[in-house]
Amino acid sequence: MSVSLNPSRRQFLGSIAAGSAGVMMSSSGRVFGAESPNDRPVFATIGLRNQGWHITSKSTQFADFAALADVDATVLGANLEKLEKKTSKKADGFKDYREILDRDDIDAVMIGAPDHWHTKISVEAMLAGKDVYCEKPLTLTIDEGKLIEKIVKQTGRVFQVGTMQRTENSQRFLKAIALIRDGRIGEIRKVTCGINGASGSPVIPAIDAPEGLDWDMWLGPAPKVPYRALPQMRKGYGGGVPLYTNCHYAWRNWYEYSGGQMNDWGAHHVDIATWALGAADTGPSKVTPVSFDLPVEYANGYPSVSDQYNSPTKFEIHVNMPGDIPMVISSEGDNGILFEGTKGRFFVNRGKLTGKPVEDLETNPLPEGAVEDVYGGPVSKNHTANFIEAMVARTQPVSDVWSHNRMLETCHLANISIRLGRELNWDPVARQIIGDEEANAFLSRESRKGYEINM
């Protein structure tokens, strides 16, 4: 689905940056804006550790936060304090996110919960009349993506996926796509996405969950299993939690809750590569696992043990994209995207854009407006600003669910191919794996009883 743009988009973003955006009507009919006593939209965040706090903190310049929710009382309390210190306003705190959805004074929710919670919260929030900003990767399965698309269309909600390389980290990536569209490397012959490898874990024992953490609710739709952790603590980003665990931060290494590096960094770089190839409305035709390492033994696509990380540590996946353009997704090499064409090649990541076609821009610059044409208008440098702009215009933002899901289907299929150890043929129209009933069973997962989606 294409992104519709408001004619006064540049003016609007300027006014958001200045802290006043004119009069705006929220999805619930509440008026907010510079000429209204309700000056700003009202948000709530569900899931607060690390990225949940990051998206909240950076959004306080554009929106007021009336409520926060987290199943860990310690995390919730700490973030309520940080928010009050930052904004001089108190927000309500909840363990159960449904208490946020029941409120009429909240225009939108931001979701920073682990991946296995994304779809349930997103669908229920939209059905409750809220616009949604949800962290990437949006879904745990391909069928979850289809459901979210259906509910967005049914409800008319605005939905922003938190793939910030389309906005806040976008300048190099947008220029890269503009280079391709302007023919600077000729016809694309190959795209390589470097997305880093990962590490396995030691055996992680089952222990009591930390005080304040509602472990059953953290698991939510996922299978009931014991909490696991070793005493060694993680440092740096994601610090303050066990280095080895099946919970905070390290949940990304478990297929039960996420998709490993394939869905973590892949949701960034495969997204840009798919956008550059003009394949955001379709998908691959074939996914082949050339090589991969799994940290535990697998049988019929499922790990044989439950006390160690189970997502891939190394991999090289070959993907047939439209026009038979090969895409390689690799855990080796520099993190970023290498585009190769008949006239040249260049590399792009968050820190650099390098290669002869880039050097040639000094004497042969891109046409005026080429980067804006890629984006679809003046480039927003803040993901939340783009989200609020779309809320006002009642359009979809630059990181919409349709393009995100199409890209993420490649990552999901790569993971399925690794789990089963074989090539998969994909029908991008039917959105089904061709001739492989066992593989198609991985397109969806059953929610644990009591945590089904309320529709």
TrEMBL record:
Record-annotated Gfo/Idh/MocA-like oxidoreductase N-terminal domain positions: 81-162
Name under which the protein is recorded: Predicted dehydrogenase
Domain named Gfo/Idh/MocA-like oxidoreductase bacterial type C-terminal is located at: 203-452
- Which parts pass through the membrane? none
Name the Pfam families for this protein.
GFO_IDH_MocA (PF01408), GFO_IDH_MocA_C2 (PF19051)
Q: Which branch of life, at top level?
A: Bacteria
Organism this protein belongs to: Neorhodopirellula lusitana
